[in-house]
TrEMBL record:
Transmembrane segments: none annotated. Gene3D superfamilies: P-loop containing nucleotide triphosphate hydrolases. GO terms for cellular component: ATP-binding cassette (ABC) transporter complex. This is ABC transporter ATP-binding protein. Pfam families: ABC_tran, DUF3744. It comes from Bullifex porci.
Length: 568
């Protein structure tokens, strides 16, 4: 094989279902042993590009292509899905779609089974791969018994048993808790160091992904490659912000402090960043000048959990003695490791499961007396995986569904309400499209729109911004903030520490079914012990504070203040 694993030459691709091409004139070479990050706004064609590399295009998604794409020196047209599966190992964005086996073990083994590996070798390899991603105790479980993040880990283990020339990770961090995300980036780095496979990572969370080095970042916009440069060059430019991608937190902090970033400072990663004494002084001066405000909290409690316990199988408790109070108009984060019980907690609040002990109160009324439908009038739940929520083939029908079932509004009123919501969620232009033509991030917005149209008093959102680019992330979060300022209580389940500090003041931390901490976000993020127990991760702000000899917690607090002030 030549040194290029992938070579796109003037490659253009149009889905049969679309009028215009989704990829235009792509010219891109990725060599053996290279590690490349692809980023770009939602819908810019990142997943489409990756589908070309694992054969889903043209096998599952037919369309017209021109130009050439060589994978391992052979035109993509000459490959089959099977021949490509030997070359490309993919971890898809939507890990649900990837399960084939009845158990987790079978699933990880699938790649090896195809190669007639002896049983004993196979078991050993499966166990090793499972251990690397921490799912070894789930090998006999059915995939549907896993939490979202646990499923994502299984997909990672699945590709790691393969011996491929190209690893393709499509949003590998979505749904992973911060510590697991960090491990994943370390695992990818290990693959990078120990094989000469090419690695392509598609990810929005640069704060997390740039924790280890990447050789190049490819920036896409509207189906074209608009930049192909090193992280040091990219972070010295304004291209990320201009193209709607969240910069790593330290980079934003440097800009707030008025530090001019250039490639010689090696700004591609926080641990390579070189700051002069003058830069540090600028950061200290900025820190000193940030005004710290205090927010008064409403004391009116809207949701109470009293000593809630629950088990799926009657043996192991998924939640144990959880008690908490949510005040009206609060915007809080629920965080914690994969499988900690966060989604289970939400399912209990919404009545999809019943607690084995304890009770929930909505204001002073026992929620056990409400039917699921009555609860839905007060509490909206946006689940983690949009594919588990969407039931209608057309976007407009999906978003109208709740209102139509409720039967309170006329058809015209429903139409008006749905149009408003679609506009807010940036879906109005696509209102008559089939859901099947949407990217994952776009589908996620459809599910948020469905819940918002119902005007609930409390909204629980499970990873609301997973798969969203900065523009949609900001639109969704600013809209939630606006709803919140009107009195709607918002509970965000998130693994995104960046989101937690940007938008919420309080963090409720779960680990192994227990609520272990309930305090301010900056306190959680600078407390080593809680971070470890709950698989959270300090952000790059902590490291920046240490570099400048400033107190970590206060630095994070002031950054949050400044960030909120600037976005008002
Ligand atoms: N199967 C399909 N049929 C028709 N159009 C599609 C299909 N899949 C994606 N598209 C369209 O192609 C465009 C690019 O989608 P793609 O999934 O590649 O974007 P992306 O950059 O990966 O976005 P995201 O970050 O939201 O996942 C979108 O506008 C989408 O509507
Ligand atoms: N349907 C189910 N049947 C059996 N066990 C389940 C089921 N759903 C979840 N579990 C288990 O209950 C525990 C809590 O899962 P839950 O989905 O609440 O975690 P989570 O904190 O939301 O995780 P994540 O961050 O990965 O989404 C996990 O150990 C999981 O394996």
């Amino acid at each position: 094989m030549s040194e290029n694993v992938i070579e796109f030459k003037d490659f253009t691709f149009k889905y049969d279902a679309q009028a215009e091409p989704t990829l235009f004139n792509i010219n891109l070479k990725i060599k053996k042993g290279e590690k490349v990050l692809i980023c770009g706004p939602s819908g810019c064609g990142k997943s489409t590009l990756s589908h070309c590399l694992n054969g889903l295009i043209p096998a599952s998604y037919p369309g017209d292509a021109s130009g050439e794409l060589l994978i391992a020196d052979k035109s993509y047209k000459e490959h089959t899905i099977f021949s490509l599966s030997k070359i490309t190992g993919t971890v898809l964005q939507d890990s649900d779609g990837q399960f084939i086996g009845l158990t987790v073990g079978e699933d990880i083994a699938f790649a090896l089974e195809n190669e007639n590996t002896p049983l004993s070798v196979m078991k050993q390899k499966v166990l090793e791969a499972a251990k690397k991603v921490g799912v070894e105790s789930f090998l006999a479980h059915a995939p549907h018994e896993l939490s979202g993040g646990q499923k994502q880990r299984v997909s990672l283990a699945g590709v790691m048993v393969d011996n491929v020339s190209l690893f393709l990770f499509d949003e590998p961090l979505a749904n992973l808790d911060p510590a697991a995300g960090k491990n994943t980036i370390e695992l990818i780095e290990q693959i990078h160091k120990t094989t000469d496979s090419a690695i392509v990572i598609i990810e929005h969370r640069l704060e997390d992904v740039l924790y280890k080095s990447v050789d190049r970042v490819i920036l896409m916009s509207e189906g074209r490659i608009i930049a192909d440069m090193t992280p040091d060059e990219l972070l010295s430019s304004n291209l990320l912000i201009e193209n709607g991608i969240r910069e790593p937190l330290y980079s934003t902090a440097l800009k707030y402090a008025g530090v001019n970033i250039n490639p010689d400072m090696k700004p591609g990663r926080i641990d390579t960043l070189i700051l002069s004494d003058e830069d540090k002084d600028k950061i200290r001066a900025w820190y000193k000048n940030v005004e710290v405000e205090k927010k008064e909290l409403n004391s009116y409690v809207v949701l109470t959990a009293q000593d809630i316990s629950f088990s799926y199988d009657g043996k192991k408790e998924a939640l144990s003695n959880v008690s908490l109070k949510i005040r009206k108009g609060e915007m809080v984060s629920i965080v914690g490791r994969n499988g900690a019980g966060k989604s289970t907690f939400s399912k209990l609040v919404c009545g999809f499961e019943k607690p084995s002990r304890g009770r929930f109160l909505l204001e002073d009324k026992d929620l056990a007396e409400f039917s699921i439908k009555e609860r839905a009038d007060h509490i909206g739940y946006v689940m983690q995986n949009p594919n588990q929520m969407i039931t209608k083939p057309m976007i407009r029908d999906e978003v109208s569904l709740g209102l139509a079932l409720e039967g309170k509004l006329s058809e015209d009123e429903i139409k008006k309400k749905v149009d408003e919501t679609l506009k807010i969620c940036g879906l109005y232009e696509m209102r008559s499209w089939p859901v099947s033509a949407l990217s994952y991030g776009q589908k996620k917005r459809v599910t948020i729109a469905s819940i918002l149209s119902m005007d609930p008093e409390i909204i629980i959102l499970d990873e609301p911004t997973a798969g969203q680019d900065l523009r949609h992330y900001t639109e969704i979060m600013e809209f939630l903030k606006k709803l919140n300022s009107l009195g709607v209580t918002i509970i965000l389940i998130t693994h995104d520490m960046h989101l937690m500090i940007e938008y919420t003041n309080r963090a409720i931390v779960f680990t192994n079914g227990h609520l272990i901490k309930d305090t301010s976000c900056e306190e959680i993020l600078t407390d080593e012990e809680s971070c470890k127990a709950a698989s959270l991760k300090k952000t790059s702000l902590s490291e920046l504070a240490i570099m400048c000899e400033l107190p970590e917690t206060e630095f994070v607090r002031r950054f949050i203040q400044e960030d909120k002030r600037r976005r008002r």
